[in-house]
Amino acid sequence: MRDRFVTMHAIETLGLAKTVGRDRRLFHDLSMAVAPGELVAITGDSGVGKSTLLNILAGLDDADAGEVRIEGIALAGLAEAPRTRLRRERIGFVFQAFHILPYLTLEQNVALPLALISPDAAAARDQARAMLGEVGLPDRGRDYARDLSGGELQRVAIARALVHRPAVILADEPTGNLDPDTATRILDLFARAVRSRDAAAVIVTHSVATAAVADRVLRLTAHGLVEQPLVAVDG
Ligand SMILES: Nc1ncnc2c1ncn2[C@@H]1O[C@H](COP(=O)(O)OP(=O)(O)OP(=O)(O)O)[C@@H](O)[C@H]1O
């Protein structure tokens, strides 16, 4: 199934195009690549198409033209079952829509991606515990998600996105509603965890602080992706 032109990129898009509604072109001929261990932030005005692009990278939405490759594998060439498997095994999500389930414990929430891949429940529990420790929530595994603060929930979301060691992490406003100090702490933790695993991350964000932890910042505009100098997002 792997393409014969093996790429070093974890994520690669070639000539993506997307039009929504009756005739509203969000982007066309959009190409980008993210290497293992690299964090790329995508910024841009509200409504420009950032979340749509992220959904297309995730294989949750289809482009009108072009293709997305995850570790060299073209998503469009896959039938639904292998596409779902690739999404489960190779991609981690920190999406607003992918909520932590309130009536499961933290351990159960974080173990979910592992449970979808392997039947070894004891190993999943151990890995979930270790991952919770890594995001600063050791000994909280038996607590219920419904009792957590917003910042704690974001940590759990990050733990759940990384626990199965995906090659690709896709995040939509990962520190959305947090106060700046908590957001900075969680972003540092996120960036460290992504880099230590050599994962490739794409983070959609409005936040300058979020963009500042990235290796590259790409601004999505009506004319396509524009690379932003990193200094420009510091202030
Ligand atoms: N399936 C769809 N049908 C019609 N319009 C859509 C569809 N999906 C997205 N849109 C429109 O496309 C535009 C881009 O939406 P998107 O959520 O990708 O923007 P965004 O850049 O992430 O915005 P924000 O920063 O405000 O979250 C919006 O105007 C949205 O209403």
Automatic annotation (TrEMBL):
Q: Which GO terms describe its molecular function?
A: ATP binding
Q: Which Gene3D superfamilies match?
A: P-loop containing nucleotide triphosphate hydrolases
List, alphabetically, the SMART domains matched.
Answer: AAA
Limits of the ABC transporter domain: 11-235
The domain of life is Bacteria
Keyword Cell cycle in record: no
Q: Which Pfam families match?
A: ABC_tran
- The answer on whether this UniProt entry bears the keyword ATP-binding reads yes
Do you know which PROSITE patterns this protein is assigned to? ABC_TRANSPORTER_1, ABC_TRANSPORTER_2
Q: Which UniProt keywords apply?
A: ATP-binding, Nucleotide-binding, Transport
Q: Which protein is depicted?
A: ABC transporter ATP-binding protein
